[in-house]
Design brief:
With about 110 residues, the protein is mainly alpha-helical. It has helices at about 5-15, 15-30, 35, 45-55, 75-110; strands at about 60-65, 70-75. Strands 1-2 form a two-stranded antiparallel sheet.
């Protein structure tokens, strides 16, 4: 089964800081730019920019919380991302198996 790949989604999770943010949001049940900046080597403004990217691709959703905005991971979108990764992995596994069979056939023909 082939799953369509969302390049914007993968560009968003391609950044190590954003992946770490997702980890923190998942483990803490959500957070704000301030709480995330306290745990990352990035300023609050930098965190806010990264959160904007994650929000645009739907990986987080935002709710106002007093003067701040609280971010939580959208688990359905995260599951979609995981499905895409699994699909890509399965496709590459199949390609590598074909390459291995070809290489083994070439080796057998050279030995015999």
């Amino acid at each position: 089964m082939s799953v369509a790949i969302d390049d914007e989604l993968w560009s968003a999770v391609g950044d190590p800081i954003r992946r770490r943010m997702l980890d923190l949001l998942l483990s803490d049940g959500g957070g704000t730019a301030t709480t995330l900046s306290e745990q990352l080597p990035v300023t609050r403004q930098g965190v806010a920019k990264h959160l904007g990217v994650l929000d645009r691709v739907g990986l987080v959703h935002v709710t106002p919380s007093g003067r701040e905005r609280r971010y939580e991971v959208d688990e359905a979108q995260l599951a979609r991302a995981v499905a895409q990764l699994s699909s890509v992995g399965a496709t590459w596994d199949a390609r590598l198996r074909r390459i291995q069979r070809i290489a083994e056939a070439i080796q057998r023909s050279q030995e015999g």
